[in-house]
Amino acid sequence: PPSVQVPALRALANLLTGSDGATGAVLEAGFLRVVGKFLCSERSRTRKEACWALSNIAAGNTQQVAALATECVQSFVDAAKHGGQATLAGLRALLPRIIAASISCRR
What pTM was estimated for this model as a whole? Predict the structure, then answer.
């Protein structure tokens, strides 16, 4: 239900700020497969929390950033097409961080 989306995303985003093991557990549970629907949410707070969670993954290790870059491309495209101006603004802030993290992980 929508009433638990923001608290659930916030809890997951908090886990994603932790150790590589905690982040890996969230990713292995399938977070990247479902996050796209939250990026396209009509609720701005839900979109914000989803972007925050993804930015935490972008600060992760090489494998986590690679998973983010490869598994979420279609979600980003769908969100950009259907999410409206607020979603576009969130993606504009998020995508450079993902790209920068990807580049720094490849050194």
Answer: 0.81
